[in-house]
Amino acid sequence: MAGSFLPIQQGGIDVKNSIFACLVLGAATSMLGACGGETQDQSVVAPAGVPGLSAANARLVLAPVEGNPGAVYFDLSYDGEDNIAVSRASVQGAQNAVMHQMGEWDGKMQMMEMLPFVMKKGEKVSFEPGGKHIMAMDVSPELKPGSTTEITVTVAGGDKISFPAEIRAAGEER
What's the burial of 71, exposed, middle or buried (CB within 10 Å: 0-12/13-18/19+)? Predict the structure, then answer.
């Protein structure tokens, strides 16, 4: 009969009922685990460090006007075996951080958000004025020139490295 469901039998076992029984058993087991009164942490913490990835010469240059974004510059080097994709960054003491680069649009050079980029063994990438950089948004007034903050770079898959960055005033060398 077309359109009707007939149970499939294999070796005397009703496959439809066996699958249903497995699903019910799995759901019941999950619910019983939740009744134990203890919560289980479902979060996954990425390991610290990306083998072969290192940073040097890191600095956060504060904006001349308080409340405006600061800019982060540094040099990345990669000597790992497998290619990696650098996907995002964060700055301790800033509400948000966005990787930017300079690019041409409509015949003019302008700043634009950066997509993740791949690094291969032996490659070096500079985040520098006029090129790639990190914009640190809503920087805490507690970040003062002469002190340091922590920059974290995350690669695809969640692994990350963190490194210190010297904090500089707006007029200092970038």
Answer: buried
SS3 content of the chain, % helix, strand, coil (to 5): 10, 45, 40
Cβ 96 vs Cβ 30: under 8 Å? no
Give the CATH superfamily of 53-168.
PCu(A)C copper chaperone (2.60.40.1890)
Q: Give domain limits for the chain.
A: 1-36, 53-168
Cα 62 to Cα 79: distance, rounded to the nearest angstrom: 31
Copy the structure tokens of residue 107. 């015949």
The CA distance from 65 to 31, in Å, is: 55
pLDDT tens, N- to C-terminus, the chain (174 residues): 454 444 444 444 444 444 444 444 444 444 444 444 444 444 344 446 899 999 999 999 999 998 899 999 999 999 999 999 999 999 999 999 999 998 888 899 888 999 999 999 999 999 999 999 999 999 999 999 999 999 999 999 999 999 999 999 997 777
CA–CA dist 1, 22 (Å, integer) = 28
Tokens 């805490």, residue?
140
